[in-house]
Amino acid sequence: PPKPIQPSAMLTSRGPALCTALRRAAPGGLAAFHSSARRCRGARVAVVLSGCGVYDGTEIHEASAVLVHLSRGGAEVQMYAPDVPQMHVIDHSKGQPAEAESRNVLVESARIARGKIASLAKLTTADHDAVIFPGGFGAAKNLSTFAVDGKDCKVNREVERVLKDFHKAGKPIGLCCISPVLAAKVLSGAEVTVGHEEEEGGKWPYAGTAGAIKELGAKHCVKEVTISFPAHVDTKNKVVTTPAFMCETALHHIFDGIGAMVKNVLKLTGK
């Protein structure tokens, strides 16, 4: 079978003139060429990913919604992920673990970032005005051990450092879906939401998470996923959370709720 065309080959196969023009437009390489066009500098926001795919990494729709709303808000974005192995790999067509298969969180996250990503170890408060964590089970499997250990979970060392550093610097932190458990574990007394505290006939299938958040010492605030009440703002700790896919609802409601979270994060930066 024919070999797949590599990105570098796509450049050179169109002739030297095109190759030169594209490289001038993207001095940082092909990944830079695919990134958003430069604009006047707004807030500098770090987005922390946990893989690629809802069951073993970042929820892709949530990551995309975060990035779209940040773009609309004029933010300058850099994505990060821990350079560690995933807890396991899930075959998303079956919802079951893929035996004898392993993947790297940073490498998988690069799929969402279109290659423009850095190791979480390089993320500092000096370079950013805010940090946002999309959801997906990767937050509970790769950024922490919450999926296995619940209230007794441990948080990835770099994730804990980032949360504590941004909190200490008074810079806002945004989290959605399951990722608010990270703030609940690391930031004592934080106020967060994962939606409702009862399943309500399957509408809130992960409602039990709210109880675990309380056991972690955080305050859980009941919120809707719709645009009316889609995000909770803990003004004291500058932590903004929204339920997202913790609720079984239409995709546009989740998109709008994430937009409210992003909007409040950007507002808290003062940029």
UniProtKB/TrEMBL annotation:
InterPro entries: Class_I_gatase-like. It comes from the Eukaryota. The keyword Zinc does not apply. It is found in: Mitochondrion. Keywords: Mitochondrion, Transit peptide. The keyword Transit peptide applies. Signal peptide: none annotated. One of its GO terms (cellular component) is mitochondrion. NCBIfam families: PRK11780.1 (NF008747). This is GAL3A protein. It comes from Acrocephalus arundinaceus. The lineage of its organism: Eukaryota, Metazoa, Chordata, Craniata, Vertebrata. The gene is Gatd3a_0.
